[in-house]
């Protein structure tokens, strides 16, 4: 229901009502109800906007620009941070270049896999060459990074916040151990994060 304005009750004699405090006309109201632009340029339904503002500070464009050597590929999927239930997508990058109910992915594919959720790219097994020193990243890589080949279908939807996905990523190494090519690689990370998001961020995957 749209707020019709704020009034103050007084005991003084009646006066003329304040001007322009009513609802907009029906046509304008319906137009506003159909679509509304969010801060990242998506069209989202009114009523699905989250109660907290979009924080655009410190996003991927500001982090480690060496990862994003070419960010001109603007046909990447969209996952807004301002909707109640946001889609997530997985994508792959070449494995031997500089790094950077859900549809689970192969865990022994010879590509590096990442996940896009609420406008941010999440990945694991990066930052170093030796397994012991590899870490997880959130927001270092732009979604428009041309090295990423995004899947052409939505992997799932989640009502989780971006901050919950970021916290899962930061805690990943402590919870699941160091990187392992066969048992704890980037594909395992994506599957675990997708299942965590699918649970509404209430169940930690095995």
Structure description:
This protein is an alpha+beta fold and 206 residues long. It is built from three helices and eight strands. The chain has helices spanning 26-34, 162-176, 186-198, and strands at residues 36-37, 43-44, 86-94, 111-117, 120-126, 135-138, 149-150, 156-158. The strands form two sheets. Strands 3, 4, 5, 6, 7 and 8 form a six-stranded antiparallel β-sheet that branches. A hairpin with a 2-residue loop joins strand 4 and strand 5 (120-126). The two termini are 42 Å apart. Mean pLDDT is 75; it is low at 1-15, 17-24 and 29-62.
| N-to-C series of helices and strands | HEEEEEEEEHH
Average pLDDT figure: 75
Radius of gyration: 22 Å
Low-confidence parts: 1-15, 17-24, 29-62
Q: Which class of secondary structure composition applies to the elements?
A: alpha+beta
Number of separate helices: 3
For the largest beta-sheet, the strand count, sense and barrel status come to: 6 strands, antiparallel
| Beta-strand fraction estimate | 15-25%
Q: Which of globular, elongated, flat, extended, rod-shaped describes the shape? A: globular
What is the number of beta strands? 8
Q: Can you give the helix content as a percent range?
A: 10-25%
Distance between the termini: 42 Å
What labels would you give this structure?
single chain
Briefly, what is this?
This protein has 206 residues and is an alpha+beta fold.
